[in-house]
Design goal:
The chain is α/β, with parallel strands linked by helices and 323 residues long. It contains nine helices and eight strands. The protein has an eight-stranded mixed sheet with strand order 7-5-6-4-1-2-3-8, with helices on both faces. Helix 5 packs parallel to helix 7.
Length: 323
């Protein structure tokens, strides 16, 4: 039977948490009376995580395991979970026991109010303030401003999605945190609710300040996609026109200096204006050409067949293990 709920969890070196996590998930999901599946995506763990997950999968057919050949990162693991899921409602979670499985029922209740995405908000976040909480708050404010979807906590993995809003989403970089923005672009209704956040009691955090920098770069991509995804020539063409304008003004002033003596007499070799004019003219041509190339790439992107951003080493409890 096709389950209604698909809960998928990226896993990287979480051997100390997996048994307790599984027990907590089962304890929260079974009382709901809903059919569900648990999809664990082992992201190239080097500890006993895959061995433990294999044992759990052998004892419970509702548990499915995907094992990557190497560590691809959380976004790729999220993408694999989405691709493998079969449910009507998709719920990602972290595997470090900081997300509380008991909050799933509250996410579902909010989803039933007519929303397409319900995002968790770690209002009382149990992480180091300077290295985790403060950078996260600043990044969330920036993402909300640029993305146009005001959420307090884009970084919280615990969310609930209706399947249709993820149908055409392709994830790269750290893009998994921007899925609510993608959903809003597709016309989905997005909201958030406060969720419980526990301090990590076992294992080590895999995230640091370097991740915030990556998020900022991905945010630039999101802004470009939001404004110029279908018409990149508008961006590059505008930059080209600005370059042509600077080139023209520089040339006019150079001629005024040489032939009109205004505001003072100066030959071409006595002022940088002729060089500036030529450089900006060539730069304007390059911007326009880049815009045309980007237009062709965008058309290729939309017309080509999507390719996965990960390779799978093995699958457990899948009907077709060769997929």
């Amino acid at each position: 039977m096709t389950p209604r709920l698909s809960i998928f969890l990226p896993v990287f070196n979480e051997e100390e948490n997996l048994h307790r996590l599984y027990d907590a998930l089962i304890g929260s999901l079974e009382p709901l009376g809903e059919s569900f599946e648990l999809i664990f995506v082992d992201d190239g763990s080097t500890d006993r995580s895959l061995e433990i997950l294999s044992g759990i999968a052998r004892s419970d057919q509702r548990v499915r395991v995907i094992s990557f050949r190497r560590n691809y990162g959380q976004t790729a693991a999220m993408a694999a979970g989405i691709d493998a899921s079969r449910g009507e409602v998709l719920i990602p979670m972290d595997a470090d026991l900081q997300n509380d499985p008991a909050d799933i029922v509250r996410l579902l209740a909010k989803l039933d109010e007519g929303y397409d995405v319900v995002s968790g908000w770690r209002r009382n976040r149990q992480d180091t303030f300077l290295t985790r909480t403060l950078p996260s708050r600043l990044a969330n404010a920036l993402i909300s401003r640029i993305g146009g979807v005001p959420l307090h906590d884009y970084g919280c993995s615990l969310k609930a999605y209706r399947r249709e809003v993820l149908k055409d989403v392709q994830l790269y970089g750290e893009m998994h945190r921007f899925i609510p923005i993608y959903a809003r672009w597709a016309g989905g209704r997005v909201t958030e609710i406060p969720v419980t956040h526990h301090p990590r009691v076992a294992g080590k955090s895999k995230y640091g300040l370097s991740r915030t920098i990556k998020v900022i770069f991905d945010l630039v991509t999101i802004k470009f996609m939001a404004s110029y995804m279908t018409k990149p020539l508008y961006l590059f063409g505008s930059a080209g026109l600005l370059s042509f304008l600077i080139s023209g003004v520089s040339a006019i002033f150079a001629f005024l200096l040489k032939y009109a003596g205004w505001p003072h007499q100066a030959d071409f070799i006595e002022t940088p204006l002729p060089i500036l004019s030529m450089v900006m003219f060539v730069l304007g041509i390059q911007f326009v050409l880049l815009g045309l190339i980007a237009e062709m790439l965008i058309r290729t992107y939309h017309e080509s067949q999507s390719k996965p951003i990960y390779t799978v080493k093995s699958r457990l409890n899948f009907e077709d293990s060769a997929r």
